[in-house]
Amino acid sequence: MLYTKEIAGTQYSFSFGLGFARKIDAQEQTKDSNGRAQKIGISLAVAGLIDKDPEQYISVMLAGNSFAEGPRLSRETLEGWMDDDGFDFFAECEELLDFFRRSNFIKAKAAAIDEYMEHQQKVNAAVREAEIKSAGEV
Question: Residue 28, Cα to own-chain centre: how many angstroms?
Fold first, then answer.
């Protein structure tokens, strides 16, 4: 699936396929309990988009463009577009996340992170409710 976006009057293409997934995943690693390297770049990229992290958005867009045909997007052009008064960063992140949720190589990690975030929201709400209840009993 190809993602396209008009940025500063130019139509850019972005490929979020296997090459992209490998590149992004390899950018961040951690070790599991057995000391084996675990690639976590896609998970961090998706979480960064959920958190509306501008640096993560820039990284994802530039990497996606590097695997697509057509004009190359520079960081300067992308940041200039993002700095425009009419730019809706929240909407752009959500649009990209929606695309990731349909992408063959990213949708499983996106779904897992969505599920985790929903669980955390429920836990946080329960903790707040318990704190409010205990504050009322004091």
Answer: 14
Question: In the structure, what pLDDT confidence band is assigned to residue 67 with cuts at 50, 70 and 90?
Answer: very high
Q: Please tell me what DSSP assigns to residue 81.
A: H
- Contacts (Cβ under 8 Å, ≥6 apart) of 25: 39, 40, 41, 42
Do residues 16 and 100 touch, judged by C-beta distance below 8 A? yes
d(CA 51, CA 98): 14
d(CA 117, CA 112): 9
> If 0-12 CB within 10 Å is exposed, 13-18 middle and 19+ buried, where does residue 107 land?
middle
Q: Are 45 and 24 in contact (CB under 8 A)?
A: yes
Q: State the amino acid at position 102 in one-letter form.
A: R
**Class of residue 132 by CB neighbours under 10 A (exposed 0-12, middle 13-18, buried 19+):** exposed
- Tell whether the model's pLDDT for residue 14 goes beyond 90: yes
Q: Cα(17)–Cα(66) distance, rounded to whole angstroms?
A: 11
